[in-house]
Design goal:
alpha/beta; 2 domains; 9 helices; 22% strand; homodimer; Rossmann fold; 6-stranded antiparallel β-sheet; Jelly Rolls
Chain lengths: 332, 332
Amino acid sequence: MEVDGLPWYGENGGELFRLPAKLKDTYRMPVWELAQSPSGGRIRFRTNSTTLAIRLEYPEPPGMSNMHAFGQTGVDLYADGVYRGTAIAGRDAKAGATKEHVYYKQQPAALREITLYLPLYMGVKVQRIGLDPEARIERAKPFSVAKPLVFYGTSITQGGCASRSGMSYQAILGRTLNVDFVNLGFSGNGLGEPELARAVASIDAASFVMDFAQNNPTVESLTQAYGPFLEAIRAQHADTPILVITPIYSAREAWSRDPRLDGMRELIRQVAARRITAGDRHIEILEGTDLLGPSRGDGLVDGTHPNDLGFEWMAEGLAGRLAKMLGINMTR
Amino acid sequence: MEVDGLPWYGENGGELFRLPAKLKDTYRMPVWELAQSPSGGRIRFRTNSTTLAIRLEYPEPPGMSNMHAFGQTGVDLYADGVYRGTAIAGRDAKAGATKEHVYYKQQPAALREITLYLPLYMGVKVQRIGLDPEARIERAKPFSVAKPLVFYGTSITQGGCASRSGMSYQAILGRTLNVDFVNLGFSGNGLGEPELARAVASIDAASFVMDFAQNNPTVESLTQAYGPFLEAIRAQHADTPILVITPIYSAREAWSRDPRLDGMRELIRQVAARRITAGDRHIEILEGTDLLGPSRGDGLVDGTHPNDLGFEWMAEGLAGRLAKMLGINMTR
């Protein structure tokens, strides 16, 4: 079995954290707490088991107002690329208590590609995966690109408000392009701090996707962070494609232009354009409003976060661009 | 202001029930309880108010595992056809307590088309809608067809699991075609009982959409209900278009055919085909799997209910067919 999307999984001793535990004290407290949620983490393997079950330990019951139990805590099973079911935290979830879920049983003993998508917005311990005693376990099929796409950003990046873990925009994109990905979205906390730039830049990535802006209080604070964040990546990865995304549409923009969001969009364009002008051939700009713009308000819940329709639109828009940047043939 | 989608609103003394209170004792208890949730109900008007607020009383806090507070309890505002925001029940909601939400304020005093979509899965009392004291209030723009489309069915029909009340498939469809609708979906309880057939048949509808099957325990029980339900409608409405929908795809069908669902699909086809053969020129069959079939598993949450992506797909498929049946020009 392989664990994808969690670059520090081995170093962290098998804990499903999204950041390196040894640097815990260098991160702001909310960032480290959000790193407990293994959004983007996937367990992949092939098996001919006639049964698949899972034993999970969640620290607490679900409790968000804009994500239900499936969205906040669910572990989705996709088999052969198709959604099959979801394990979720119960109302009685607490540390020390376990929850078992049988995804399937008594199925024919055919080899299947298994992907388990880990929770978007709650920590979890995967205590056991249950298969037939005699089941074969083989490596999952390889990705079309060996290295992962690395996404840094906000709650939207983290997967809020998908209805389940297989419906974050990266998860949809990952299936569309057969690519691996790392989700470093931190709800309310995607500020672009130097310690996060170092974490992102330390990953051996196929591409970096910058999806942060909205969590910064002002255009000025984003200005302080954005250029240095890109420089930190470029210092380690001279030629790796970088895609910068400007903020997607927010429902309040149906009323009037939002100077803060517009300013952030302009800032991101400026920073990227300066790099392009200076000769960086591997950075591109994607307008967030091309992914989810004013004509696509139905793709938002709560005015700010995409719902599944919004994430589908984002994934569609990103798939074409990233396939081009990475040389992935989408006509296959 | 007009209240749409609740045919017994006047008769029920302004309560937002989906069935006539005077017949309460004729309905099974869970059906009557589900009728407290005003799914499909809309408050519509035009106003030039610079402010719009609402005061709501919810009986209890949100508490579903596959719908969050926005999906279960939200009252969505669309202005000029565009999503603006949502009022939701708080964790402290209880009978007698009120919740106020300001949708907008200090906007230009321009005339706007207001639609408030009432909650999908919880009862609510709308105690007050707040506008400027001097605001103009005018009738909402007329629908493209005067009478409503009437939907009868299950939890899926009721709106499970949309992320908010403006994202049930009927709500999306209503915006696409500019049509009025009545939602008589009853979660877990869309059995097709005679008393529900009478309620449905009593509505002066532009079209009847039959979206029930899955809640019946067996094909046999559906067989008992389905033909008589259609006859009850036809006895009152000789020429009104009826669209029967067979069950949409369920995630368990990714494993193997489901004899119960397949049997229900076949039964519905048979019942409708017999009517067509007998000369009924105003009944059509729509395969649920054309709306949400095996290639669209991403449109499901929890294996059974559509998420927003699934509802978007359902609405798209229904829009074309219903526009044709109702003579609505979609090229405008």
